[in-house]
């Protein structure tokens, strides 16, 4: 059979060198860290009343810069987005048995956050094109116990935020945004992360900009901001001096950011547009290069939205191509294209949900509810994750135009070689091998 000289079948790969790792840390970050080290003060926080309660000069400057960037009234730094999500669940007053609607298609922290306060995650299905919560699916699972909708702007594309905010407001619910992956995502004239009552950004190493580990919560609600500050920093010690009447969920933790991280974050934030634009350019190049290929659908960008491409995600139609996603991915990997078949299984597949065990031995908080998490709960997620989606996460790599062109060439080569690849199909997919 003639066709391209596929690397998986012994041919020469398109990319002969590994892609260089993504590097956003430069001289500005280095200088900022050295200045903090020279100061000797690596954290300015005190967990007791006084000026140190809100952190040191770098933390305060970083939060101020974040407020300006996102045009929000309050920014509260934390040591990770996971911490920020948990703190937000506490701040909005989640109590045992309250339901929080979440997507099953996300990193696990999204669905874990409510559980720390006894909240019950309730999964709603997603939209198949941009992978955000489907507002109609959300509306169907609202009950008198629902307290909040926790939406994720997955892969860098905003979910239907304005619509979800209207839905939340109609039912008297909080809309909280997990904006870990979309630092400059936009829906219309609004930044992703700022449409809900509060949002949280991640600053872990894998994100467009990072502080190693870190996170930032944003809100326009002064009450929520104060509660976040208390939960971040041993709130129980502060409630008397600050004269806080409602003590609910103010059992505080240490979720504080160091001066070192904040100094790096300040320098990174100054370059967030440049880093994000570079990622968007590389992914636009890839999308254009595969637009005419049958059976592959490049990422969809909803009109009026800005997609930040934390991941470049392609829908793969196994049946029209007559090839399994896994075999296609193996062939791409052999060409030097670092690709992944699928993102994460639906979160309700985690043992924690399957077995109904989270906190303590009695199955708290699941023992407060009749909710169960059977397979088939969210068919769109299951179909996409198990069959359709291939994913290239550009975050770990530095992509210039030449490297983007090489990646595009690899995908076109493998697509042209599909007839040759059919012979490699695993025996358990006869319907594809005979296509
Ligand atoms: C959607 C989403 N939410 C939450 C998190 C948790 O972020 P962090 O590692 O900063 O805690 C991540 C991390 O990748 C994420 O992708």
The computed structural class is: alpha/beta
Low-pLDDT regions: none
Shape: globular
Largest sheet: 7 strands, mixed
Strand content: 5-15%
CATH class of the domain at 27-271: Alpha Beta
- Count, helices: 16
User: Quick one: CATH superfamily of the domain at 27-271?
Assistant: Type I PLP-dependent aspartate aminotransferase-like (Major domain)
- Rg: 23 Å
- Strand order in space, largest sheet: 1-9-8-5-4-2-3
CATH architectural arrangement of the domain at 27-271 = 3-Layer(aba) Sandwich
How many beta-strand runs?
Answer: 14
Give the tags.
435 residues; alpha/beta; Aspartate Aminotransferase, domain 2; 4-stranded antiparallel β-sheet; 16 helices; 35% helix; globular
Overall description:
With 435 residues, the chain is an alpha/beta fold. The protein has a domain at 27-271: Type I PLP-dependent aspartate aminotransferase-like (Major domain) (Aspartate Aminotransferase, domain 2), CATH 3.40.640.10. Helix content is 35%, strand content 12%. The chain contains 16 helices and 14 strands. The chain has helices at residues 27-39, 57-70, 81-91, 109-112, 135-141, 161-171, 222-232, 259-269, 272-290, 318-321, 325-334, 351-355, 379-388, 401-416, 418-421, 430-433, and strands at 74-78, 99-102, 120-123, 146-152, 174-178, 186-187, 190-191, 198-202, 215-219, 296-297, 305-306, 312-316, 340-341, 389-392. Strands 1-9-8-5-4-2-3 form a seven-stranded mixed β-sheet, sandwiched between helices. Strand 4 (146-152), helix 6 (161-171) and strand 5 form a beta-alpha-beta unit. The radius of gyration is 23 Å and the shape is globular. The protein starts with 26 loop residues before the first helix and ends with a helix. The mean pLDDT is 95. Pyridoxal-5'-phosphate binds at residues 80-82, 106-107, 109-110, 152, 178, 180-181, 202, 204, 215.
């Amino acid at each position: 059979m003639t066709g391209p000289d596929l690397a998986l079948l012994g041919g020469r790969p398109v990319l002969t060198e590994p892609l260089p790792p993504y590097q956003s840390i430069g001289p500005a970050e280095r200088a900022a860290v050295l200045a903090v080290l020279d100061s000797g003060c690596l954290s300015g926080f005190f967990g007791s009343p006084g000026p140190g309660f809100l952190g040191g000069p770098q933390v305060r400057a970083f939060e101020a810069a974040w407020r300006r960037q996102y045009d929000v009234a309050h920014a509260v730094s934390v040591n990770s987005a996971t911490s920020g999500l948990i703190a937000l669940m506490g701040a909005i007053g989640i109590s045992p048995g309250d339901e929080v609607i979440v997507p099953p298609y996300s990193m696990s922290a999204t669905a874990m956050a409510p559980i720390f306060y006894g909240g019950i995650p309730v999964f709603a299905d997603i939209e198949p094109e941009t992978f955000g919560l489907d507002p109609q699916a959300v509306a169907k699972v609202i009950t008198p116990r629902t307290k909040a909708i926790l939406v994720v702007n997955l892969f860098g594309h905003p979910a239907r935020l304005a619509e979800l905010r209207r839905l939340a407001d109609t039912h008297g619910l909080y809309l909280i945004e997990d904006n870990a992956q979309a630092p400059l995502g936009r829906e219309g004239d609004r930044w992703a992360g700022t449409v809900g009552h509060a949002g949280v950004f991640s600053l872990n190493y894998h994100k467009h900009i990072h502080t190693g580990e870190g996170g930032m919560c944003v809100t326009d609600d002064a009450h929520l901001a104060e509660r976040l500050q208390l939960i971040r920093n041993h709130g129980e010690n502060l409630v008397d001096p600050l004269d806080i009447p409602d003590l609910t969920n103010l059992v505080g933790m240490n979720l504080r950011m160091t001066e070192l991280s904040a100094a790096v974050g300040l320098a990174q934030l100054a370059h967030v547009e440049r880093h994000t634009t570079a990622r968007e350019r590389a992914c636009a190049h890839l999308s254009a290069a595969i637009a005419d290929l049958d059976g592959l659908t490049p990422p969809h960008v909803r009109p009026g939205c800005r997609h930040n491409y934390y991941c470049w995600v392609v829908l793969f139609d196994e049946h029209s191509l007559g090839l399994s996603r896994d075999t296609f991915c193996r062939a791409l990997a052999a060409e030097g294209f670092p690709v992944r078949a699928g993102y994460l299984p639906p979160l309700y597949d985690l043992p924690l949900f399957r077995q109904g065990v989270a906190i303590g031995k009695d199955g708290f908080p699941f023992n407060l509810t009749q909710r169960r998490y059977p397979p088939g709960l969210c068919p769109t997620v299951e179909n996409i994750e198990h069959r359709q989606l291939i994913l290239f996460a550009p975050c770990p790599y530095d992509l210039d135009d030449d490297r983007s062109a090489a990646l595009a060439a690899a995908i076109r080569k493998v697509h042209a070689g599909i007839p040759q690849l059919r012979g490699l199909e695993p025996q358990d997919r006869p319907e594809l091998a005979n296509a």
